[in-house]
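User: Predict the structure for this protein chain, please.
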Amino acid sequence: MLKLALIFFVISLIAGVFGFSNIAAGAKGIAKILFYIAIAIFLIVLVFGVMLGKLVF
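Assistant: Here is the predicted structure, written as structure tokens:
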């Protein structure tokens, strides 16, 4: 998930450099959403790992 967020971030940067502001804004929004989803999944797995008392990874 973080890999996709990074890909969309790079697309956003490249589109911004070439002046495609609408594409850059869209890619930035997608990257932001994917990043927050990845953080939420990480925190859920971390909490369950602590609650179970063993390493889930």
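The chain has one domain: 2-52.
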